[in-house]
Write a structure and sequence with these properties.
This protein has helices spanning about 15-20, 35-40, 40-60, 65-95, 95-100, 100-125, 130-160, and strands at about 30, 35. It has about 170 residues and is mainly alpha-helical. A two-stranded antiparallel sheet has the order 1-2. It is elongated and about 70 Å long.
């Protein structure tokens, strides 16, 4: 008895990719074609790294300047992260091609978790920035840096692999 294999059915396709809206990934929140979310997100990324750096410098030197700098960096990182998050959420909800991708939702969930850590880090320091650095402020800064990397990786994947937010008129 000879066993035969059937060829793969080439008519199978992904129903989500076949949706005409799937390829509509242009930015709805933009200035002169430049997406606001992409422009704003650089600030909380840099400030999360700056907070970690300031904490490490405070730990190393004991200079109060670094503890105060970490307070300001964590607060600015959180507030600018909220602005970037609002722009990103509006994009997610308004653009069908972004909303249809599971990767977009993964990026969204991780970014909300990052905002929670950034907010907790800033809030913890408001009661006394010098005492807040060691050990919990430093730990929260390390978590924020890790979440920033993870969120940024997913966001970069959306932009560079899927052209989300940058593809004009579905191209």
């Amino acid at each position: 008895m000879t066993e035969t294999t059937t060829p793969i059915d080439e008519t199978l396709s992904d129903p989500i990719e076949n949706d005409p809206a799937f390829h509509r990934t242009e930015s709805k929140i933009a200035v002169a074609g430049h997406p606001i979310h992409a422009m704003l997100v650089a600030f909380p990324v840099a400030l999360a790294a700056s907070t970690l750096g300031a904490d490490l410098f405070y730990w190393w030197t004991g200079d109060l300047f670094w503890a105060r700098a970490a307070l300001w960096a964590s607060g600015a990182g959180f507030l600018l992260g909220v602005l970037a998050g609002i722009a990103g959420t509006v994009e997610l909800l308004m653009v069908p091609g972004i909303r249809a991708r599971a990767s977009s939702w993964t990026h969204f969930v991780i970014a909300v978790m990052l905002l929670s850590v950034l907010g907790a880090n800033w809030g913890y320091r408001l009661g006394g920035y010098e005492a807040a650095v060691l050990p919990y402020g430093l730990l929260l800064s390390a978590f924020a840096a890790a979440f920033t990397g993870f969120t940024g990786w997913h966001g970069g994947k959306l932009v560079f692999e899927y052209h989300v937010g940058v593809a004009p008129n579905g191209n």
